[in-house]
Amino acid sequence: MRNQHILSRLCVLLLFVLAGCTGGDDQTGGSAPVISGLELDPTTATVGSLETMRGSLVFEDPDGDVLELHSSIASPTGGEMPVPPAMIAGAAGTTAGAVSVQLSIQFVALGDHTVRVWVRDAQGNDSNALTRTIAVGE
Question: Between the CA of residue 80 and those of 12, 71, 95, 111, 137, what are the distances in Å?
Fold first, then answer.
């Protein structure tokens, strides 16, 4: 119940995909994309304030059908909150490239939060997931 309360108060305000492509691992057909090189900055935040994190990752997808960027945020108590997926502009037909992201998040709990990012392709295949820890303090 406490995890749900913390997660329900954790406001994920905005997720933009600025450019790029990505794909899957829960395969329904074709090849799953593979992602690497996740950068996210800053990696510290102040509890209660709106924090904007910018980052990027690179992908490879032999099928060239990367479609969406997915992410979630896990609280220090272990509860996880999904972020609505974002369409990746200009990905059609691209077999390798970079994805730029921007996350605006208001953290309401102190401690280390884990941001998890992956991509999904047009066939529903999820890539591997990459994570970064955000240290939330006063």
Answer: 12, 10, 31, 14, 19
Domain count along the chain:
1
CATH number of domain containing 26: 2.60.40.2550
- List CB contacts of 84: < 8 A, sequence separation 6 or more: 15
In sequence order, the 6+-apart residues with CB closer than 8 A to the CB of 5 are: none
What is the pTM assigned to this prediction?
A: 0.78
pLDDT for the residue numbered 80: 92
Of 7, 15, 18, residue with least CA distance to 99? 18
Identify the band that residue 28 occupies on the pLDDT scale cut at 50, 70 and 90: low
**Token pair recorded at residue 75:** 């609280």
